[in-house]
Design brief:
Layout: E1 22-28, E2 31-37, E3 40-44, E4 49-55, H1 59-67, E5 69-74, H2 80-88, H3 96-100, E6 104-106, E7 113-115, E8 120-132, E9 135-147, E10 167-170, E11 173-175
Antiparallel strand pairs: 1-2, 1-5, 3-4, 4-9, 5-8, 6-7, 8-9, 10-11
Length: about 180
């Protein structure tokens, strides 16, 4: 039997963290930003609801609260440096689109943009917001979703053998799933 070691409570979430990283875009009254999010999940099949967890201090949360909408963008590993940049700097201080060179594209159902360089995106309106300690859980209704056709299998699921999605392990640790050769 393998020896187990106790983890510090403040690091405990890292054992369930390896979901793919997303970039959340939002816009309100001419202001826009991008934030990197590792904590997210689907929460309802119908209506189609997803949730993101954002620190109370995030500029993106402020814009989401004001606009009532956000876009979830799915980056691949080739964008890792830009993903880290978007999670390191505040949109209050820098224009993340200008700094990263990401291309803003108009969403079909909301006024927020999506990131053209990402492999998929979901356009969401706020369904509900829940206080959760030093974070808020923002639940969004998915109004529209798009993905690069070449990455989808016949069931409409992203084929992880065709794209290297970024997985956050905690802190500055990231990985990708091993591709089938």
């Amino acid at each position: 039997m393998a020896k187990r070691v106790q983890l510090a409570i403040e690091e405990a979430h890292r054992i369930i963290n390896p979901g793919s990283v997303i970039l959340v875009t939002t816009r309100c009254s001419g202001a826009h930003t991008i934030t990197t999010v590792a904590w997210h999940m689907p929460v309802s099949s119908w209506p189609k609801l997803v949730a993101i967890s954002l620190a109370n201090t995030r500029y993106s949360l402020e814009l989401i609260d004001k606009s009532g909408e956000f876009c979830i963008n799915l980056p691949d590993y080739s964008l890792l440096d830009k993903v880290i940049f978007c999670g390191t700097y505040s949109g209050r201080d820098v224009d993340k689109f200008s700094e990263t060179g990401f291309t803003q594209m108009s969403c079909t159902s909301i006024s927020t943009c999506y990131i053209e360089e990402c492999v998929a995106h979901m356009e969401c309106t706020v369904y509900n917001v829940f206080e959760a300690g030093d974070h808020k859980i923002v639940v969004g209704t998915v109004n529209a979703a798009f993905a690069n056709e070449s990455l989808l299998n016949s069931d409409g699921v992203i084929n992880v053998g065709k794209v290297s999605l970024i997985h956050h392990l905690g802190g500055s640790h990231f990985c990708v799933l091993k591709r089938d050769e």
